[in-house]
Design brief:
Layout: E1 2-9, E2 12-18, E3 28-35, E4 40-41, E5 44-45, E6 48-55, E7 65-70, E8 76-81, H1 87-100
Antiparallel strand pairs: 1-2, 2-3, 3-6, 4-5, 6-7, 7-8
Length: 101
């Protein structure tokens, strides 16, 4: 297991965690811990987000991955099919998720 930090924008920090190669569907390749201290919606702080890239290999999924988010209430929400299991592709997909939210 390994990790590194990136700061794609001012006051946005992403900790990328590189996990051991998954064996079974549902195990993660990578995890992105996103910290945005200034993000608030009305009076609710939405400062953290966790996104994982999981192994998911049914025949109709060409990349063999899916992206999921773990919410603050510990609920696992499937975002959709993910990119190929490479660090940079996952990072770009995480940046896209940040922009959408």
């Amino acid at each position: 297991m390994n990790y590194y930090f990136r700061e794609p924008a001012n006051r946005t920090l992403i900790t990328m965690i590189l996990l051991p190669q998954p064996i079974s569907d549902g195990e993660s390749y990578f995890s992105a811990l996103i910290y945005r201290p200034d993000r608030r919606i009305l009076f609710v702080a939405d400062t953290t987000k966790i996104i994982n890239l999981e192994k998911f290999s049914p025949p109709e999924n060409p990349t063999g991955t899916r992206m999921v988010e773990w919410t603050r209430r510990k609920v696992r929400e499937v975002i959709g099919n993910g990119p190929a299991p490479y660090q940079e592709e996952f990072y770009r997909a995480v940046i896209e998720q940040i922009r959408e939210s």
